[in-house]
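tool=predict chain=A
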Amino acid sequence: MIYLAADIHGHIRLERLKELLRPYTLTNSDYLIVLGDAGIVWSETEHKEVRAYYESLPLTTLFLDGNHENFDLLEAYPAVSFKGGKAHKVGKKIYHLMRGEIYTIDNKTFFVFGGGFSLKKLTNSSPISVWEREMPNETEYENGLKNLAQYRFAVDYMLSHVAPTKIANEMRLPLIDQEIKLNNYLQEISEKTDFKKWFFGHHHKDKNGENWSAIYDRILVLGDR
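tool=predict ok
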């Protein structure tokens, strides 16, 4: 089984995640995918306790990067081949799914594109909690298009942290000027790609559309709405 969650933010919503997972019987053949802002890699001290929880689960934890990650620490982990794509190996059973990569998990293909913009950059917040790498660069945008082309723009599922522009408008979400390039990129590839469903987090809302789901305070089992 594949379980989807989002925006756990390290220890901040870890207890809530435990509650959400409690009804399920997890096995070592299962996967938990966190759609950004997992907080598994945040600081040298805090993330050890959080990571220990995920390592204690019988399943394998996968996460996209969001707009609240410590990219300096995250990118220090080794990049390895994983399920047909590249991933950072964070722990024995924890992997960071990289931007623009495509993975085959349980015989399903997943296009992944993390990233987002932190509003803290627009305030006087301490720079220790924001990183320039929160937003994708041109190489990552090109990598996504290249990999989708190799799959003839057909995958089973699309996973991102932020929503494509059309979905954001449908949800009446305020678009951030500094983030809209990412929204528009995701919109562009959504129009080019044949997929079953798009899942994303970031916006702290639970909502379903015809072929998409926003996730925040719930767990979705792949195939559920």
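The chain is about 25% helix and 25% strand. Helices lie at 14-21, 46-56, 71-74, 138-150, 165-170, 180-192.
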